[in-house]
Amino acid sequence: MNIIHLSAECYPVAKAGGLADVVGSLPKYMKKMGVEAKVVMPRYATDWIHEHQFETVFEGDTPLGAGQFHYKIQREKKNTLGFPLYLVDIPERFDRPGIYIDPYSGHGYWDELERYMSFQLAALDWIHYSDEDPDLLHCHDHHTALVPFIITRCHRYRGMEDIPTVLTVHNAEYQGVYDRGAFSLLPSFNYSEVGLLDWDGKFNCLAAGLKCCWKITTVSPSYMEELSKDGDLSLLYHSERHKSVGILNGIDTDVWNPKTDPYLEKNYTLKTHRKSKLKNKKALCDQFDLNPDYPLISYIGRLAHEKGADLLPDLFSHFLASEQSVNFMLLGTGDRYLHERFNQLNSRFVGFFDAALDYNEALAHLIYAASDFIIMPSRVEPCGLNQMYSMRYGTVPIVRKVGGLKDTVKDIGDEGGYGITFYDFTHHAAAEAVQRALSLYSDSKGMNAVRKTIMKLDFSWENSANKYLELYRELIND
Ligand code: GLC
To answer: What is the mean pLDDT of residues 458-468?
Structure first.
């Protein structure tokens, strides 16, 4: 079986969020099951790309609106990732310092549609006009969601319409919405089909993908349910539910392994976690001037509305200003206003709180190992990987009960539970959850039992990769 993934991100080549982790690990696990999967992504100006060697395997020109552009398809020479990686090189669109966002202005690039449309067209040109003969195209999020429309409706790609397509929704908040005039960038198609590209009077790439793909997947079952109940595309998710399924993401247990993780102060296993986690905690506390004798609750992630990061400043202050001994740590970037709030907390609670307003993969690993708890107050969480990473490192998750968080964390109050959950997106509910975490921490036997339970849970891809395999088989044999 020969699958091609089309994605805007892939770890470690270029990462902005969890999409990269999934696209960087799923193909590895599928390979173990005998599925050949390639990843095709844009050639950005990332360090990883500069440090690796590529060979051009195809090049050509393809139309974009009234003009045309030149592209190259380049294969990574050494197969470093364990699966074939192909870059679509369109220098005028992707040779820039950011992935989606211009780091100088903090805003998204002005030509987002042209960037990802040209990426998709070039990739499809290559597949169409070379010897590539995929059994299925697997698209991820709105950046590649036009593929199902293009191969079934655009005349230039005639002959590709029988290739099955899967569209995985990792984040439905971003849809790729533009004015209808932008339809004209697409290669010619029968104008009577234009409705497929439209949602609510706009050109909506994600909606077009949902309508035209063979199968929709979301990255957790609960997220699928939530999408068809609530939100601006809920009607569409609801009407396409016959071809939809939620498949929980797995994690890359090679990259996320406390036994071998090169970023830790001290590696550990289930047997040695007690002492060694403490060593990691001491190292982190040293670095950020915190107190290793206090419980440490950390947040790692984008400082974005969806992630509920705006709930944190008041929540942290509430506990920091109280009599209780507790430390908080935060790692992430995003909303400038939140940067300011966290900077204020930094100076107000020296020795009790520290915010690293940064994107730092190595530090993230150490925080997972060193913390006692990870907090995720997400408004929306399609799957969430951080709670799974944290549990593998014996760090107890405190999560809002939505999407994938609901599917992966069972409250300690329920039978067999091992995490702390809350439902209402309010200061009160979150504070109550943190209070429960502090009580658990003070009961060292209970805390240790929970740690052991979570370290034994299996969030590897094995399970989910099988579900994808079944789905691929069903579509290919159809
Ligand atoms: C997005 C979602 C996150 C999910 C990830 C991988 O980043 O916000 O919940 O885990 O994609 O699918």
So the answer is: 92
* Closest residue by Cα to residue 404 from 153, 208, 226, 163: 226
Position in ligand 1 atom list of the atom nearest CA 385:
10
Residue 224 has pLDDT above 90, yes or no: yes
Mutate to test the pocket of ligand 1, among 25, 170, 305, 390 (most ligand atoms within 8 A of CB): 170
Q: Residue 384: CB within 6 Å of ligand 1?
A: yes
Among 247, 305, 385, say which to mutate for ligand 1: greatest number of ligand atoms within 8 Å of CB.
385
Q: Which residues have CB under 8 Å from 287's CB, separation 6+?
A: none
Which atom of ligand 1 lies nearest, measured to the CA of 404?
A: 9
Cα–Cα distances in Å, from 258 out to 27, 151, 213, 366, 398?
A: 22, 44, 39, 10, 20
pLDDT at 225: 97
Q: What is the mean pLDDT of the chain?
A: 97
* 380 ligand 1 Cβ < 6 A: no
Q: State pTM to two decimals.
A: 0.93
Going from the N-terminus, what domains does the chain have, and what CATH number goes with each?
2-250+462-477 (3.40.50.2000), 273-459 (3.40.50.2000)
- Cα of 271 to ligand 1 centre, how many Å? 31
pLDDT tens-digit series, residues 135-154: 999 999 999 999 999 999 99
Q: Quick one: pLDDT band at residue 103, thresholds 50, 70, 90?
A: confident
Stretch 354-376: mean pLDDT, rounded? 97
Beta carbons of 461 and 393 less than 8 angstroms apart:
no
- Element spanning 26, H or E: helix 18-32
